Amino acid sequence: MRGRTRLLILAALLASQTLHAQSSPEADRRAEQPTEIETDRDSFTAAVSTAGRGRLIFESAYSFLDNRSTKETHGLPEVLLRYGLTERLELRLGGNYEVGGAGNDVSGGAGAGEELSGGGKLERATGVSYGVKYRVTEQDEWIPGSSILLTGFTPTSGPETRTQATAGYIFGWELPERWKLDAGFRYRTDGERHDHFNTWAPSVVLKATIGERVNVHAEYFGLFSQGKETDFVKHYVSPGVHYLVTDDLEVGFRVGWGLNDQAARFFANVGVGLRF
Fold this sequence. Notes:
The protein has helices spanning 2-16, 25-30; strands spanning 56-66, 73-84, 89-100, 123-137, 145-157, 164-175, 179-192, 195-210, 214-226, 233-246, 249-258, 266-275. It is mainly beta. The protein has a single domain, classed as Porin, CATH 2.40.160. A twelve-stranded antiparallel beta barrel has the order 1-2-3-4-5-6-7-8-9-10-11-12. A hairpin with a 3-residue loop joins strand 6 and strand 7 (179-192). Residues 1-31 have low confidence and may be disordered.
């Protein structure tokens, strides 16, 4: 209950920033989305942009984690549907299946949130995610563009049965020479068996465009528990690349390495995004 109360307080603080965002047609024009598709699955840090009014983005991916002390983890199809109700507001619905000895720490879209607690044995889990993303501010010189992200995750099978809730804040800057710097943090209610705790996840990613169709990035992200019987701290670094087949279709690949003993030794993620 205490974790849910903190989540509601955090969500209220994040949402309060929208009071300063105009809702006029002029504000909607300033919130116009990129001409090229920008998915949330490209990196652990979600995109600042939303889907755009009347646009539907389909994302899907496969993740592999080489865990240090438990069996490896596989996650797929990590489906995420993002539909733009307005230029600023999008609805989100996703689903995933996981098998392995530990949870998927590394997915930024529908794969985030599942928790396998196999303790070395093989376990399977499925679940659905749902939520909203709202564009709060547009970049104005050194004031970053920003969005809030509120999601829930409900297991449909597996060792865990409790719904988890996540509140996130993403912000970033468009830099000269088509570089981008984005950062964010997430707060999530969490649990394993009878152990209830909270998880914080900060991240930062630097993106660059090579030519007209290739984008590369380098990212750091971490996961930190609070109130767990035995707390964990996990650090990751991750490079990645994605290719725009068309303005509405992209494919991408990223890998990463854990920087400490509690993080997975290695992970790989490959996926696709399609905008309608």
